[in-house]
Amino acid sequence: MKHRGIFLLNSGITTLLVAAGLAAFAVPSSLGQTAAVYAAAPSSPANAPYVATMTFDVASVRENKKIDMASGVTFVMDFVPNTATFRASTSIDGLISIAYGVQNHQIAGLPNWPFPTLFVIEGKGDRQANEKMATLTGEQQWAEKMHMLQSLLEDRFKLKTHWETKQGDIYNLVVARSGPKLDAKGSKPPPAEELKFFADQPVPPIHQNCDGTRGCEFIAHGGTMSMFAEMLEGQFGRPVIDKTGLTDSYDFVVKYKMGRGLESDANDPSPLPTLERALVEDLGLKVEAAKGPIKKLVIDQVEKPSEN
Question: Taking the domains of the chain in order of start, what are their residue ranges?
């Protein structure tokens, strides 16, 4: 089984590759799904925030009750480029992560539905919505798509939420004593395999690749430390704040053993290091435990939807 957790990052905005209609990946249950943060671009000279209003004109939601565990579990979330059409086979936490721009660890009160509980979803906007979507910037499109998914969750899953911010455990990403071991942007161009995988889409500044040997790697082509810290949140299960002081863009590859823990398992035969050790050895970076504000999306109510 092989999957990629893929991000496109532009001007400090993090979006999943579903923006390009290409987010299809198999995710082991121990890894979970990586979330993202989205924001709307200014829409006027006064820098007024863009206000999203779109909803799906029609939407079909049903639970997939014929999952073959022997073949693996595939999560798919896909917005057709420049349209209001969405297709997915995903879990409730994956859908909420995309809709609200949060990591899994930022969601509290998820339902205790058995794994895997997947929903097959198809939502479509009307002609006017598609025409409008094609005129918007990428950031404005994501604001609309988040609004559409939030509306779908509220309507079909009866989702009710509120936000809370509390002090909690975080990690700071800092430079290790050995100093950074990062290559300059452009020094490690994407090989043919990467270019083939992304096809006609640009290779993102940072993406993740995992395979069936329980090994993973982060691959950067012009990635920043703030981008990297945000991606690390999904691995460590808590916020990671960039405190490196490194402001350039970098190329790097870091390979590590799949899993969120920081400690090695003595019974694990994998020759790969934990992510914590790989950061130090390969990149000259490390994570340090700290306290800081953690914003959580708290679920007050959620139900399995009736099918139609």
Answer: 3-164, 167-293
Question: Residue 218, CB half-sphere, CA atoms under 13 Å: how many?
Answer: 29
Residue 218 Cα distances to 41, 121, 235, 257, 258, angstroms:
28, 30, 11, 11, 11
Average confidence (pLDDT) over 244-269:
77
SS (H, E, C) the chain: CCEEEEEEEECCEEEEHHHHCCCEEECCCCCCCCCCCCCCCCCCCCCCCCCCCCCCCEEEEEEECCCCHHHCCEEEEEECCCCCCEEEEECHHHHHHHHHCCCHHHEECCCCCCCCCEEEEEEECCHHHHHHHCCCCHHHHHHHHHHHHHHHHHHHCCCEEEEEEEEEEEEEEEECCCCCCCEECCCCCCCHHHHHHHCCCCCCCEEEEECCCCEEEEEEEEECHHHHHHHHHHHHCCCEEECCCCCCCEEEEEEEECCCCCCCCCCCCCCCCCHHHHHHHHHCEEEEEEEEEEEEEEEEECCCCCCC
270 pLDDT band, cuts 50/70/90, is low
Confidence check: pLDDT of 261 > 80: no
Higher pLDDT, 220 or 139: 220
The structure's pTM equals 0.67
